[in-house]
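Backbone-to-sequence.
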């Protein structure tokens, strides 16, 4: 496996180096500060480009239970949606309609917003069951299905599904169905496959990353593979040619990477497993992992990590190790909680505990604002999900 990887690395070395070079040439183009200096920016999404329109919209999820909409070029605030008293979990633009934005809420709803309309009313609501507390969600790549994951209530943790197609004549929608047997603790992440709308991955504090084919008639048949991280799962994503791999980042700053193509073979499914990446990185200080990015042009998986002083690191995933490529400094003054990196258009948006939203572009530098002073309080990494205790994890089939 290592020889095959290094051969691939050799063939693609110039391109991979240029991706690291892209990252290192990024400078702050715009900076936008939150009104409340104690607000953390927990999630970021950007609307898809529309032919004939130059402006894209940035949506951010804030720790003060609000969603902010920003002009991507100017980083000026366009409007704000307030979800109080519910706690929000994630923001996602529709893949096909840049005017539609989804968010999940602890009040047992997923809300659909029309960003062209101001005000506090959602265009449509997807209702869960009364006991549901949604802490994760995603939309299928064809925009037909939305799925939300719940906190564990009593003995139950659910994946809830709806028909996500917007209908202006129907304000409220009921679930199509639920999966209730595959996780036994909080479902912290839900991610649909980037190109196959029938495939769904879910991650939980029970340590498991499950992959489902939701075109199957029931949950038992839909569950196609289960990978065990032996830790509490915080972030999951898809990678590999054809996106036939999944990876996860744990709440203990661990990293696991699996090849689903090997599930029915004698080859090992695990590509990489690191219990604590903070002890394994040379050349930089890593305090936490933020998320992942798969580059299909080079068939390479990258992780974005950081230090509590605000430095952002780019790491490349290799078999059994992570390699530090480049770092960005001078932007944030504390933990960076979220990012959105468009490799093709070469811009990066980051948000963090310092109540700063930054737009990074190549060879552009904003000298009008200095780095914000650090404002320390309880880490926002723990505001994405509630604090979890360490526990034993029972492996299922691999």
């Amino acid at each position: 496996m290592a020889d095959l990887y290094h051969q691939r690395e050799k063939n693609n070395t110039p391109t991979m180096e240029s991706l690291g070079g892209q990252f290192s040439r990024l400078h702050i183009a715009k900076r936008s500060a939150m009104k409340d200096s104690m607000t953390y920016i927990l999630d970021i999404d950007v609307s898809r480009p529309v032919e004939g329109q130059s402006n894209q919209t940035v949506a951010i999820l804030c720790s003060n239970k609000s969603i902010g909409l920003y002009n991507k070029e100017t980083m000026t605030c366009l409007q704000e949606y307030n979800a109080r008293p519910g706690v929000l979990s994630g923001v996602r633009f529709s893949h096909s309609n840049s005017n539609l934005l989804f968010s999940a809420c602890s009040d047992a709803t997923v809300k659909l917003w029309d960003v062209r309309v101001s005000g506090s009313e959602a265009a449509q609501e997807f209702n869960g069951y009364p006991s549901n507390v949604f802490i994760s969600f995603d939309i299928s790549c064809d925009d037909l299905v939305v799925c939300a994951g719940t906190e564990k209530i009593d003995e139950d943790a659910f994946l809830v599904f709806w028909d996500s197609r917007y209908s202006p004549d129907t304000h409220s929608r009921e679930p199509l169905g639920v999966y209730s047997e595959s996780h036994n603790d909080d479902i912290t992440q839900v991610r649909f496959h980037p190109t196959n709308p029938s495939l769904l991955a879910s991650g939980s504090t029970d340590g498991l990353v499950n992959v489902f084919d939701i075109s199957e008639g029931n949950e038992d048949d839909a569950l196609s593979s289960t990978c065990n991280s032996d830790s509490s799962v915080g972030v999951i994503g898809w990678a590999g040619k054809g996106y036939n791999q999944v990876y996860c980042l744990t709440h203990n700053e661990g990293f696991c990477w699996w090849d689903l193509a090997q599930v029915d073979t004698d080859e090992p499914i695990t590509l990489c497993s690191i219990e604590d990446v903070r002890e394994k990185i040379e050349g930089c200080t890593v305090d936490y992992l933020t998320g992942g990015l798969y580059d299909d042009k080079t068939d390479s998986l990258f992780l974005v990590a950081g230090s509590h002083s605000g430095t952002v690191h780019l790491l490349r995933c290799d078999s059994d190790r992570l390699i530090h490529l480049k770092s960005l400094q001078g932007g944030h003054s504390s933990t960076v909680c979220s990012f959105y990196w468009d490799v093709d258009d070469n811009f990066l948006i980051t948000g963090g505990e310092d109540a700063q939203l930054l737009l990074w572009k190549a060879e552009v530098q904003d000298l009008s604002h200095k780095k914000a002073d650090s404002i320390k309080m309880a880490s926002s990494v723990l505001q994405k999900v509630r604090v979890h205790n360490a526990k034993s994890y029972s492996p299922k089939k691999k």
